[in-house]
Amino acid sequence: MAPPISRGAFRRFHPNDEQETAKSTGAGNNPVIARPGNEAVYTEGMSEADVALVRQAVESFGRNDRDSAWGLWAADGTMNAPKEWPEAASSTGLDQIRRVFDGFDEAFGPNWPRDMTAKRFTDSGGGRVLVEYDWRPSGAASGASVDQQISGVYTVRDGRIIHADFFTSHEEGRKAAGLE
Questions:
Q1: From 1, 47, 107, 131, which residue has the greatest number of CB atoms within 10 Å?
Q2: For residue 88, what pLDDT is reported?
Q3: Is the dihedral of CA 119, 123, 126, 127 positive or negative?
Q4: Which domains does the chain have, with CATH numbers?
Q5: What pTM did the predictor assign?
Q6: What is the distance between the alpha carbons of residues 74 and 21, in angstroms, rounded to a whole number?
């Protein structure tokens, strides 16, 4: 279960952005911070270190700096891809996890991570961080557009990401994170 939301200090998505505004998530009265033009938000009451680590990995991956992103994972980390994906297997070990993600290069081109926008980071307790993404890549060969929600529930231990479960909807991700 997620830690209680307090009405104390806000956590910021981009610490250097001076034009952030407070908004409501629409679920109750949970305040968040959002940057104008980018709906990425943090909800309150989170473990700053866990969220900061996951945010750093997500931002590195989004810049297509995969080596930096993978450097934040444990060597023996595990991952479960969405059950709807052809590569919906469990992966064990960083090399195997990297191969799953590198496999998207063929389908969507090598810059597909730039088409993923992290919309929300939520601490769900116990070292788990939910990230809700919008993903809008185009097929490398066909040019066909994809418009999909993705959620990742990351588990952090000892300053490393040790596990991630991915889902093809934000609702599934919130349920898996124990937030619904």
A1: 131
A2: 63
A3: positive
A4: 46-176 (3.10.450.50)
A5: 0.73
A6: 35
122 token code pair: 């939520």
Angle in degrees, CA 141, 146, 150, rounded to 5: 130
Residue 149 to residue 94: CA distance in whole angstroms: 24
Give Cα 159 distance to the centre of its chain. 16
State the DSSP string of 83-134: TTSTT--EEESHHHHHHHHHTHHHHH-TTGGGGEEEEEEEEEETTEEEEEEE
For residues 109, 114, 116, 117, the Cα torsion angle rounded to the nearest 10 degrees is -170
pLDDT beneath 70: ranges in the chain: 1-46, 87-88
Phi and psi of 99, rounded to 5°? -60, -40
Residue 40, number of CB atoms within 10 A of its CB: 21
